[in-house]
């Protein structure tokens, strides 16, 4: 399935016809409140709605009506599973956040499935270049299901970047995650950087003060040291987007030196970004065959189904199964699961 995505239902059918119960359709149903029961006399045969559900489109920040997410302050997740999605939102990457928004229901539901838990929170972070962009770092809050929509929509997207050195401020994001983001209650934490550029090799004191309103805390300044600290408590991945704006060689080399080649996911099609996030989770957890089956089901009827699946499989070819350097055996109590519990009949 590559067309309509949303939190609503579009599966009205005649009693004699059943639409395929694919992962996306289950994702849509999972976030709906139970339908009110009707008296038997009022129930009529349902007919297929030939109109596909509307494509989810990332709203403008003004339409969302939320303030620009800031960069300061600490935050804590109380879930047993956490995903952190860090998006480069400079001009060359402007289309990628919209693709994530379009398929956000699928991302959330399927991530729960691969992590074998409904207790999942996602944190979105958007960044540009602190050397010159108006909004160098925007940090949402941890959220679940439909409440993620306005968080993603509140980001100001399309920073120009400075193009002085072909770098963005990934090191500031790493610093933020190390200093201010507490995921200690989670067993599984997966952080994804989605970008087409490298970062800088060390923190800039002036930029840290400008973005966070405080001086650099602690002795760590080198980007590699920040990444090493994060890798002790979470899985860290880099989805390197081939936008054609920069030479990929130096960018790949920078990220490989930072996190290792088995944590690099190259991608040349922005429409497949959610697929590669899920495929990375699936491969890391030994469920890549399940993912492939699900993706083929979603792509059924598309003339490009085979190529789309191949694109994703090529992207995650090098993904390994090693976890954080200091994995935890148990997590905290977690909080409310979003998806309804199954009832025994």
Written description of the protein model:
The longest helix is centred in the first third of the chain and has 12 residues, at 104-115. Helix 6 (170-180) crosses helix 8. The protein has helices spanning 23-30, 61-64, 96-102, 104-115, 148-153, 170-180, 205-212, 223-231, 248-259, 273-284, 288-298, 305-315, and strands at 75-76, 81-88, 120-127, 137-139, 181-182, 188-195, 235-241, 264-267. The relative contact order is 0.15. The model is unreliable at 1-5, 7-22, 33-54 and 330-345 (pLDDT under 50). The chain has one domain: Rossmann fold, CATH 3.40.50.410. The radius of gyration is 21 Å and the shape is globular. Strand 7, helix 9 (248-259) and strand 8 form a beta-alpha-beta unit. The chain has a 6-stranded mixed beta sheet, with helices on both faces. Strands 1-5 form a two-stranded parallel sheet. It has 345 residues and is an alpha/beta fold. It starts with 22 loop residues before the first helix and ends in a 30-residue tail after the last helix. This is VWFA domain-containing protein. Residues 41-62 are annotated as: Disordered.
Summed up, what is this model?
With 345 residues, the chain is α/β, with parallel strands linked by helices.
Task: Supply the key terms.
345 residues, Rossmann fold, 6-stranded mixed β-sheet, two-stranded parallel sheet, 8 strands, disordered N terminus
SSE map:
Layout: H1 23-30, H2 61-64, E1 75-76, E2 81-88, H3 96-102, H4 104-115, E3 120-127, E4 137-139, H5 148-153, H6 170-180, E5 181-182, E6 188-195, H7 205-212, H8 223-231, E7 235-241, H9 248-259, E8 264-267, H10 273-284, H11 288-298, H12 305-315
Parallel strand pairs: 1-5, 2-3, 2-6, 6-7, 7-8
Antiparallel strand pairs: 3-4
């Amino acid at each position: 399935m590559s067309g309509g995505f949303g939190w609503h239902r579009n599966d009205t059918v005649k009693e004699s016809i059943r639409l395929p119960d694919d992962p996306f359709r289950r994702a849509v149903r999972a976030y709906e409140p139970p339908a009110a029961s009707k008296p038997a006399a009022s129930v009529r045969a349902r007919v297929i709605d030939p109109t596909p559900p509307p494509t989810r489109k990332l709203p403008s920040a003004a339409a969302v009506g939320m303030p620009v997410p800031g960069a300061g302050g600490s935050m804590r997740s109380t879930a047993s599973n956490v995903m952190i999605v860090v998006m480069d939102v400079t001009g060359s990457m402007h289309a990628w956040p919209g693709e994530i928004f379009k398929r956000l229901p699928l991302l959330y539901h399927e991530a729960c499935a691969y992590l074998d838990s409904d207790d999942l929170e996602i944190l979105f972070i958007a960044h540009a270049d602190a050397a010159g962009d108006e909004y160098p770092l925007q940090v949402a809050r941890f959220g679940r299901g439909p409440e993620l929509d306005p968080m993603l929509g509140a980001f100001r997207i399309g920073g120009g970047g400075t193009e002085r050195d072909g770098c963005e401020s990934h090191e500031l994001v790493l610093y933020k995650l190390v200093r201010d983001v507490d995921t200690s209650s989670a067993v599984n934490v997966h952080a994804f950087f989605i970008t087409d550029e490298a970062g800088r090799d060390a923190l800039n004191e002036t930029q840290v003060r400008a973005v966070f309103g405080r001086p650099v805390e602690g002795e760590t300044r080198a980007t590699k040291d920040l990444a090493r600290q994060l890798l002790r408590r979470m899985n860290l991945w880099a989805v390197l987007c081939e936008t054609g704006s920069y030479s990929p060689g130096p960018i790949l080399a920078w990220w490989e030196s930072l996190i290792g080649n088995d944590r690099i996911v190259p991608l040349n099609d922005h429409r497949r970004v959610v697929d590669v996030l899920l495929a990375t989770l699936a491969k890391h957890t030994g469920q890549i065959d399940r993912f492939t089956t699900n993706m083929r089901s979603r792509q059924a009827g598309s003339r490009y189904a085979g190529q789309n699946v191949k694109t994703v499989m090529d992207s995650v070819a090098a993904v390994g199964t090693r976890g954080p350097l200091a994995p935890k055996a148990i997590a905290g109590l977690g909080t409310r699961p979003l998806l309804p519990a199954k009832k025994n009949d």
